[in-house]
Amino acid sequence: MESNLQKYQAFLKTVEYGSFTKAAELLNYSQSGISRMISDIEKEWNLTLLERGKAGVFLTSQGEKLLPFIQSLCREYDALTEQVDELSGLHTGLIRIATFSSIATHWIPNIIKHFQADYPGIDYELLMGDYEEIEAWVVSGKADCGFLPLPIRSPLETIHLEMDELLVALPKSHPLEHCKKFPLKALCDDPFILPKTGKRVDAEQIFRYHQLTPKIRCSTFDDYAIMAMVESGLGISILPSLILKRSPYNIITKPLEEPAYRDLALILRSKKNASLAVKRFLEYLDYRK
């Protein structure tokens, strides 16, 4: 029964996106695997459901007539599965969350604390990575969901969470420690410690937009190492306000004269097709603060 349903789901995704490739990406199959599943249905029923061509994949008249029945069957099975999971009480399960340090430090503990109070049998795996790795893990299915700044490149579902301001981190006794807002041009006056988050670097986007050329002396993925180096007077940096909360380092933070933000969101392949544990987890995102 389940193998047939997988074939029907492959058929529905292919129809929705008009492409075997897109359906394969979303369902985490190979393109040939999706094509084979649909061919199996057609052979079993002795019907042609799809027209294949260079412009894409389209329903035949036979496919159009059967489409609503296949949609209904998959919906009913999803409802049955969800009801069974509800009755089992989510006693066990695993949620794999892809994230980066500031969210792992300041949001996820609160979310899990409240979620675990209601669902103590669920386990968690945190996958720590840069922005590109996090997106790739969610696309491939290695992670059930992930936290990322928008925009993203892949056709994933997103849940906007909040705007996180980027602040300048300065050592004590810096000449501009008393300024209300940090001048953009002053970013080029001191050695700069660059936070690396993969190919997409928040600070570099600011530099490109304002055509600035900072004196980058060091780069690292470790936000706390950056704060320690700033505290030691080795340079200045730009860090998200989220990671600067409850900072143990004796540093000063200033907003930029032209504010900059990262747009934080949760990403997942499909909210509809997510496990019940993940669906319930999404309901607890407001506990992040």
Automatic annotation (TrEMBL):
GO terms for molecular function: DNA binding; DNA-binding transcription factor activity. This is LysR family transcriptional regulator. Belongs to the LysR transcriptional regulatory family. Residues 1-60 form the HTH lysR-type domain. One of its GO terms (cellular component) is cytosol. Keywords: DNA-binding, Transcription, Transcription regulation. InterPro entries: HTH-type_LysR_regulators, LysR_HTH_N, LysR_subst-bd, WH-like_DNA-bd_sf, WH_DNA-bd_sf. It holds the Pfam family LysR_substrate.
